[in-house]
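Re: the multi-chain job from yesterday

Posting the exact lines I submitted so nobody has to dig through the queue logs.
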Amino acid sequence: MDKKEITIYDIAQEAGVSPATVSRVLTKNAAVSPAKREAVEGLIRKYKFRPNAMARSLSDTKTKILGLLVADIRNPYYAALSVACEEAANQQGYTVMLCNALSDNRLEDSNLEKMYEQRVDAVIQIGCRADDLVSDSAYAAHVNRISRTIPFITTGKLDGTDCYRLNIDDVASMRMIFEYLTSLGHRRIALLGGQKKIQSTYDKWQQYIYLMGKYELTFHEAYLQEGDYSEKAGYRCMLELLELKKPPTAVIAVNDFTAVGALKAAAEKGVQVPRDISIISFDNTFLSEISTPKLTSVDYNYAAFGQRLIEIAVKAIQNQKIPKEQLVTPTLVIRDSCTQAQER
Amino acid sequence: MDKKEITIYDIAQEAGVSPATVSRVLTKNAAVSPAKREAVEGLIRKYKFRPNAMARSLSDTKTKILGLLVADIRNPYYAALSVACEEAANQQGYTVMLCNALSDNRLEDSNLEKMYEQRVDAVIQIGCRADDLVSDSAYAAHVNRISRTIPFITTGKLDGTDCYRLNIDDVASMRMIFEYLTSLGHRRIALLGGQKKIQSTYDKWQQYIYLMGKYELTFHEAYLQEGDYSEKAGYRCMLELLELKKPPTAVIAVNDFTAVGALKAAAEKGVQVPRDISIISFDNTFLSEISTPKLTSVDYNYAAFGQRLIEIAVKAIQNQKIPKEQLVTPTLVIRDSCTQAQER
DNA sequence: ATGAAAGCGCTAACAC
DNA sequence: GTGTTAGCGCTTTCAT
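And the result, structure tokens for all chains:
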């Protein structure tokens, strides 16, 4: 717990070279004669020397750290995407600094400050206030202040700001779902959970209504059950749906949590899924896989999603020209929660 | 995306004071006359100046960063504990640097290196190789090399190393479970999932066997179903148990995932939980809350657990004297998955 | 209370 | 190729 840190000066001295030479073998940015290189490398191994990242960053003004601000890592969706980002970042030689917003605006702000103090090379924001349909202007200002200095990437909306956006194509998801459900003969389709004030949910609602029309299905106000994103909300909304005189034959849950809640409500009411009612969800987290029955769910290919996020960040850091807005195309993973519509 | 960074020199100049004075108002480590302090603070606000954390760390050799190495943040147990740590760390003025080991030893090692390069003030390790019953000696050496310089805290075993341990009291958990189950009249109790090579599981097994004796229950080899920690394993092991001529009336699942798998197996076999068989689990993650039925589970009070971890780290950093080994006492959260044993 | 100056450990011109 | 030197932005003696 003491033992002073070894530096490039120590290495240089013992190797009989200058600190610059040691630095050169460390960064590989310049040629060094094989003899000296080996001498230095030997000592590095001998002392298990690791350069001080602080000093390095201070000197070259690049930290090789990417700030990752997520809503709540305890949510499997964010966890999946975060890990994907961490892996992709590692591959590109970057480290991730992960912070949770936890629905606390002050925390979110202070974490943003922290990232800035840490001089991260870019910040990637997933979830949090960036998802709001109407962006808080004070927040937008905060983001803009940061995005003037470093690239800012979001999976949300954040309008009024100058940042890169990589959004899930919710419209395409909904289209896919309708194609699938109608192909199974469903005509009474409900949409469960989510809040209109969240951009992605808003888009889903719009598209849901549009598609109901397009497929000539009769739109029922009661089939649109607003809730939040929790299992509890899914449970509650599903009960409402089941109590309707004409309950839907298929329900689209806004995420896996609400789908699990819906499953619980159905089980309690003696309604079998998928025999009596089909359920389909968004996100395809591990919950889809472990629920009973397993959920048919919209997947975003987290590995690729994370990679693209990191790729945008890295290119932006390098000042490469990249589009400000991009989409990730979802995919439908078919499991056991949907089946042919039954006449009832 | 350009705009040069503002520094304490800029602030000092405009305020007509020396950089040292600006530093003093920043750190609050020394007295500054009210007039100058206000002038400086005004400019800090005006420019929204944030000191460069790299420079600061370089200078005072404290980064105020805690390295958090976890097995896999996608696992709700680790997610819960990590968030608790992050919150506690924030409260103490520390930032957390979170890395996943992902069951990849090379990744784990390189993440440890990364933390060292980043000169974190301490590393806290949760899960990963630290959990192994018999610690890998090369790994122990690696840890020791680090723990000579900075405090190392683990929730695992890691013997042969000099680090602080905060372990869950698995023996107490098991005792609690037995008290509860036997009070419900259960005498045929199985233990499902987990691998003996993992310390905490090994301890659970030992205690299980001991308690079977103590309560004068007949120990059945087949009631000890080794598996891993996945839902799949829980499912498979539960099927085995249900096929026994004398199946258990209660099963203790090693964690929530295996319990969920067991639930699924039971449902499939038409065995009702808890009417026909009781299930109890460890970890009390959100899965216990959303499963059907809700699981009775052993809880660790994540908030307090995380706080203690951080507290140990912080005290160790300050060279305060603290015990090398401590325990966290679990608690039983009773929900709907256990009931009175039925004669069958 | 305040300023000057040294130094934290490294990188990157700049000479040779 | 290699060494010398000047920072990177901050904190902290040490004087005053």
